[in-house]
Design a protein that fits this description.
heterodimer, A: about 325 residues, mainly alpha, 13 helices, B: about 250 residues, alpha/beta, Rossmann fold, six-stranded mixed β-sheet, 9 helices
């Protein structure tokens, strides 16, 4: 029997919401950073866990979002006003569009499946990283520094947000909204069909579903969420570099999501928080050997608990309308 | 009555091999027909062409008066042709109710991702659908764990739920027990009688063909050899020699 675990899910969000009461400013800033990675992890959880598409280059979309925000707010895009709102819109639209077009190209006809899709996305991320390194207008190897903080209003009345507490609250709100949106999508009939396509693509196509368009649309949603996380990253760190587009971050997010549990959004979110926190502690203590520990942990998890360490705890029951035998 | 399905002079070549050699076949609206023939006679190729899995080399396929020759499977499915595969094709990782939800969403012609975001139908809608299909006891069971006969029934009921007007059933009783076969015959009769759905069946099991009691189309070497009632077919010496093999007691 499935254990109803929604009280636990609510508790996780409640504890996060209450953190400002007990956590100091320094750690609050750190936690905001971790939750940005958590949003990023949820984007991969959606496309991998629900859509069955193992994207090996998810950082491409995170980086596109971060660069879109940085270039916009620094006023480097000709004809585009230097506003954070426009930055957010671009950070959603640009990765979303790139993923949709890439998806249509990859899934049309017989379509790329399994490892081939992973390899192409990995290659795309690596190419994007190389491009960013060599393109001086967007900062080249050094990236872009001094990205303005999130600003509301303009002129004398403008409010700049750089204190840890408001940043924490904004990122927390963003994470919760992303969580609820993706969860709603997963639990809607759309989510059922998406899992159906993951399960048996041919059956879905022979019931009238345009499988390629479905997968491309889901890929675009995941990319837009990753881009959104990238935009938050840019304003929180005030710095973007080609490294956030490429191979290393793509692999990292894969490990967070695999360890947490790809099929459960909250497990993927917490996977990012936990692995990153442990990394902060252990990389001090172990230095480079930390990566070895992480690698061993990853292999153990894949072999012994392929559904992830946290997924069994946070798995939700099926939506009421889908529960059988009631 | 005008035919729901009309196949005219369809041929299909795979390289030098001629799998279909000018097939003509008509299925009147609301009728059931059974296609029999030895392995390799082109039955499955014909289904692949009707459902869009393969384009024909030449010839024409019409569904409900519309030319569907060479269209893709999703488009042909949307027009109302539902295909059951020889190996049961259901969504194995998902529960029976989830399987039905995917079919029900297809019935509303909600194929574009955006149209699927609205609320799901009331739970009782699915419950009624499942009860009507004789699947009520299995609502929460993961499809891959269903007994073979129930899995076949689920696949057929999913196609009915998509509001298909023509069912293509590829060996619906393969691997079934006698009781399951009898239940399938009853199900096919039921679907035809109550919903007016037209059905084309490929089948090897002669007991099943006799039970179904419908016109039988005999295919040989990529063409239709003859068509008639089961009793006429079974007594035709040429067919007995070619297909049933002598001596066979059916």
């Amino acid at each position: 029997m499935r254990r109803p675990s929604s009280p636990l899910t609510v508790a996780v969000w409640a504890v996060l919401a209450l953190c400002p009461l007990v956590v100091d400013d320094w750690n609050l800033g750190l936690l905001a950073q971790l939750m940005i990675y958590g949003i990023f992890a949820m984007s991969l959880s959606f496309i991998w866990g629900q859509g069955g598409l193992l994207c090996f280059g998810q950082a491409l979309f995170f980086g596109l979002g971060a660069y879109a925000m940085a270039l916009t707010t620094k006023g480097l895009l000709p004809g585009v006003p230097a506003s954070a709102l426009v930055g957010f819109l671009l950070a959603l639209a640009l990765p979303g569009t790139v993923a949709f077009l890439l998806g249509l190209a990859l899934f049309r006809g017989r379509g790329l499946v399994g490892p081939y899709f992973g390899i192409v996305t990995l290659a795309a991320a690596v190419i994007a990283e190389r491009l960013a390194v060599n393109w001086n207008y967007i900062g080249g190897f050094n990236g872009l520094l001094d990205i303005p903080p999130l600003t509301f209003g303009s002129g004398d009345g403008a409010i700049e947000i750089f204190e840890p507490l408001p940043i924490f609250l904004i990122v927390f709100g963003a994470a919760l909204v992303v969580y609820l949106l993706l969860l709603g999508l997963e639990r809607s009939p759309f989510g059922t069909v998406l899992r159906g396509i993951r399960d048996n693509e041919m059956r879905a196509a022979f019931m009238g579903y345009d499988v390629a368009r479905y997968k491309a649309a889901s890929f675009a949603v995941a990319a837009a969420v990753a881009g959104f996380a990238g935009a938050l990253f840019a304003i929180q760190f005030a710095f973007v570099s080609p490294a956030i587009l490429g191979f290393a971050l793509s692999t990292e997010v894969l490990i967070w999501v695999a360890l947490g549990g790809k099929e459960v959004l909250l497990a993927a979110f917490l996977g990012a928080l936990v692995v990153k926190s442990v990394e902060n502690v252990l990389s001090d203590a172990l230095g480079q050997y930390w990566l070895l520990v992480l690698g061993i942990l990853f292999i153990l998890s894949v072999v012994l608990l392929p559904r992830g360490l946290l997924a069994p705890v946070f798995r939700l029951r099926l939506p009421r309308g889908l529960r059988g035998g009631g | 009555m005008s035919p729901i399905l009309s196949i005219e002079a369809v041929t299909k070549n795979f390289g030098g091999i001629q799998a279909l050699n000018g097939v003509d076949l008509q299925l009147p609206d609301g009728d059931v027909k059974c296609i029999i023939g030895p392995n390799g006679c082109g039955k499955s190729t014909l289904f692949n062409i009707i459902s869009g899995a393969l384009p024909p080399t030449s010839g024409r396929v019409e569904f409900a008066g519309e030319d569907i020759t060479g269209l893709t499977p999703p488009i042909i499915s949307r027009l109302g042709v539902g295909r059951k595969f020889q190996v049961p094709a259901v969504f194995g990782d998902m529960t029976v109710t989830e399987n039905i939800e995917i079919a029900a969403a297809a019935a509303k012609r909600a194929y574009l991702p955006l149209s699927m975001l609205r609320r799901r139908p009331d739970r009782s809608d699915y419950d009624r659908l499942l009860a009507d299909s004789g699947l009520g006891d299995y609502a929460g069971v993961v499809a891959s764990e269903l007994p073979h006969g129930i899995k076949q029934r689920l696949e057929i009921m999913m196609l009915v739920t998509t509001s298909a007007r023509l069912l293509l059933l590829d060996e619906p009783t393969a691997g079934m027990t006698e009781a399951e076969t009898a239940a399938t015959v009853a199900l096919i009769r039921d679907i035809r009688a109550n919903l007016g759905v037209s059905i084309l069946v490929i089948e090897h099991d002669m007991a099943f063909v006799r039970e179904l009691d419908c016109p039988v189309v005999v295919m040989m070497k990529g063409a239709v050899l003859t068509e008639g009632a089961y009793d006429d077919i079974k007594d035709d010496p040429e067919i007995r020699r070619a297909y049933l093999g002598e001596p066979v007691a059916c």
